[in-house]
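F.,

This is the one I mentioned.
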């Protein structure tokens, strides 16, 4: 796809040369589409069913897609005007406020034993939704997970943080058509977030530690979030710059329902999120007969602007594939009655359809999709 970038640059130069000096530059859309196979499966052989990677894709320049291990980060710090923090749901992290705690160094195991039984993912109780980020991705308005960071340090809670689960170990055997997403528990931390000028201070420690560590995260307007790893004690690079990714392939904490009743959190594989923080929208087109024909015939004039979903990053989610749960090669497959329309952060439109979610051996973690600009 590097030729796309070259064509893009050449197009910009050509447009600039035709404009008077006082006119705005016209942004030229990408010239062609492509078939993309995001590297969700990682580099180790036969580990696709563990889905170790997150992949961030810019449809205008897929050659610049970014890949990271799911365990590479713990918290994301919002760089906009508000002071908000997200957790790494791709490894099933969760957090709960430690009632009555005012000094992080004084918190000990006996203070949080009862809370540990609640701050969990996948317990099939609706109450555990309060301990995770809002599944729809609307972090600015969420009342779950980590609260908005306050100006007054004493108003910011101390949290018990379930650090989630590590990746399955090398050589983990996963049945064709199935997934094994979690390894060993990553333990617990006590954490407090403080607002500072143009950024955040994070205090963190093991549960029984009587001293804590600190890190300062300064806001960077080029990115929606800055990311932090407790293991590294450092800032880490995860997302591309805020307008340079449209789709994220990841594991995901979602809300699950049974007969219309919430069962709380559920840990999904093969999930696709959209970059709603930068205004990316998407919607599904359900075909009536022939997918090839209807996809190929879909043009810019066919777009229905009223159908775009901009306020929920699950617009694609798991809707592109299905599983039957019987752990066979044929139990997981891509829907053949639908495709998706994307509007990116720069206002360009794309049509996109998924072709595969497995390799020829039936191993999951091998998604494949094609797209075209409209």
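My design for it:
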């Amino acid at each position: 796809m590097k030729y796309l970038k070259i064509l893009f640059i050449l197009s910009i130069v050509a447009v600039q040369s035709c404009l008077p000096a006082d006119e705005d530059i016209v942004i030229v859309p990408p010239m062609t589409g492509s078939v993309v196979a995001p590297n969700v499966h990682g580099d180790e052989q036969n580990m696709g069913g563990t889905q170790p990677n997150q992949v961030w894709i810019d449809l205008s320049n897929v050659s610049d897609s970014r890949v990271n291990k799911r365990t590479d980060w713990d918290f994301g710090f919002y760089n906009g005007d508000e002071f908000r923090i997200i957790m790494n749901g791709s490894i099933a992290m969760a957090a709960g406020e430690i009632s009555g705690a005012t000094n992080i160094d004084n918190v000990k195991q006996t203070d949080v034993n009862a809370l540990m039984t609640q701050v969990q993912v996948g317990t099939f109780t609706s109450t555990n939704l309060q301990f995770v980020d809002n599944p729809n991705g609307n972090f600015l308005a969420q009342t779950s997970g980590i609260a908005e960071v306050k100006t007054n340090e004493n108003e910011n809670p101390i949290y018990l943080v379930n650090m989630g689960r590590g990746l399955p170990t090398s050589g983990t055997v996963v049945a064709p058509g199935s997934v094994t997403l979690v390894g060993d528990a990553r333990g617990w931390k006590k954490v407090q977030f403080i607002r500072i000028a143009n950024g955040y201070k994070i205090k963190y420690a093991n549960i029984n530690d009587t001293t804590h560590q600190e890190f300062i995260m300064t806001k960077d307007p080029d990115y929606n979030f800055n990311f932090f790893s407790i293991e590294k004690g450092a800032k880490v690079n995860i997302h591309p710059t805020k307008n340079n990714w449209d789709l994220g392939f990841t594991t995901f904490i979602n809300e699950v329902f049974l007969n219309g009743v919430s069962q709380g959190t559920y840990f999904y594989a093969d999930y696709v999120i959209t970059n709603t923080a930068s205004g990316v929208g998407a919607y599904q087109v359900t075909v009536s007969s022939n997918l090839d024909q209807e996809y190929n015939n879909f043009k810019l004039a066919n777009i229905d602007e009223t159908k775009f979903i901009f306020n929920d990053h699950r617009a694609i989610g798991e809707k592109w594939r299905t599983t039957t749960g019987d752990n066979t090669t044929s139990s997981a497959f891509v829907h053949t009655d639908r495709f998706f329309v994307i509007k990116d952060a720069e206002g360009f439109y794309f049509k996109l359809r998924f072709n595969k979610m497995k390799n020829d051996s039936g191993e999951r973690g091998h998604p494949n999709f094609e797209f075209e600009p409209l």
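The CA atoms of residues 84 and 140 lie 7 Å apart.

Talk soon.
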